[in-house]
Amino acid sequence: MNTRILLLSCLLCFAAVTAVCPVALAAAPTAAPVQVDALPPAITTIADGDSDAEAPAGSEARRRHGGNAVFAFGRNAELAAGRHADALIAIGGDADSAGEVNDAVVALAGDVRVTGPVGDGVIAILGDAYLNSSARTVVALMGDVQLGPEARVSHEAVAIGGTIKRDPAAVISGREQSISVGRIGHLEGLRTWLKRCALLGRPLALDRGVSWAWGVALGFLALYALLALLFREPMQRCIETLETRPGRSVLAALVSLVLIPVAMLLLVVTVVGILVVPFLGIALLLATLFGKAVMLAWIGRRVYRAEQLLIPLLMGGVIVLALYLVPLLGFLVYKLLGILGLGVTAYTLLLALRPPAPAPAASAAPVDAPTVDAAPAATVLGDGLLPRAGFWLRMAALFLDGMLILVVSHLVADPGPRAFFGLLALYAAVMWQLKGTTIGGSIVGLKLVRIDGKPVDWATAIARALGCLLSLAIGGLGFLWIVFDHDRQAWHDKIAGTAVVRMPRGVPLL
What we know:
By secondary structure, this protein is of the alpha/beta class. The chain has helices spanning 3-27, 60-64, 188-196, 211-230, 232-244, 246-269, 276-301, 310-323, 329-353, 391-412, 417-435, 439-444, 458-473, 477-484, 491-496, and strands spanning 34-35, 44-46, 68-73, 77-79, 84-91, 95-97, 100-108, 112-114, 121-125, 129-131, 134-141, 145-147, 152-160, 164-166, 171-172, 175-179, 378-381, 384-387, 446-450, 498-502.
């Protein structure tokens, strides 16, 4: 068997078993190692009739081709001396074979020790492979290959992320290859997490070996607490959406789960869309993290209601960490928090982007009533009060400017993504200082002004252009801030002290 094909098969087997083995573990005992002469029917797979234990004495052909395969989930698998099996596989445990194996001995997240003959391969993934008999191939992924004095390898020995240690008397007839992947080590913590957590369907366990996983979980909880302090108002809006529109929030989560892969695929097949994919991926990651913080705060408010969201969020985090310890339920809660959090965030964003309902006409205003609405989302410019521009108008202007720079730059050269965004920022800074708007802004009727009423100078224009790159680099979150901000300011507007207003029709901007 080709080593690459065998290794790929084991990796695919590992992915599949990780998804289904919690169900098997929920029904199977986890105490003693599995032995071939005492296998329950749920563990041993018989392909062609009787097992080796039931074969008649002296029936060598039946022992070799009886179809007996030994599987162990979450514990060790052992094949005693004098016994036969087609394959010996341990998931989340060690595989120890002193008998005769027709095909392969495999351990996923465990060590392999073979002292009996093997017809094909000896493979250890996230573990060491020890051989002191004959085999065709020996492979260790993130572990060492150890060959005893009686080892005979007819094809090749490969150690990926480890080394090959061989006795002087060991014989390798084929290739000997050791592939280094940096200072990864033996990943003992990851192996323990796979055994104690992943195979049981939970993210965490009360085990010292998974202390690093607790560190990661507490680190994310600290990040969610920081989000609650920095973005209290947007998070409060998301919680209100979930409480007042629970059905539509769940529907938005399901729609997002279906549409996101489709949108990614459509962007990949287009030339221009490839530039958007990384930013969309970052935006989805940030939205998911923000959504999980919303869900933790919502769970905590079921227990303790407070004006600030920090204490409810921490209480919700403690509850969720406790649920992470429950087999099967832990991973289910982890996935549901991410899916529902993303759906609630997306639905709240759509509600904020929806145009407001028209206000009812006033019946009769007093004579001395002011004729100018002093709403925060407006800017005094000259003798008039100009409304602040909304999210969609500003994105339309940005799209037009981006297409203009893309076309012009491709006529001169073929810039990469970094050069494209650099040219766009330079173009915008120059236009803001000279004309107070860009070509795209003039088409949709937008003008850049300073909050203090002074003209836009070079320092303000350059600071805002650099701030735009910052708002874009963090998944476009700085631009999305326009939706939630009461003053319709993006992050770069707050950095530069500017605002974007809508000019009346007929007023020349360039």
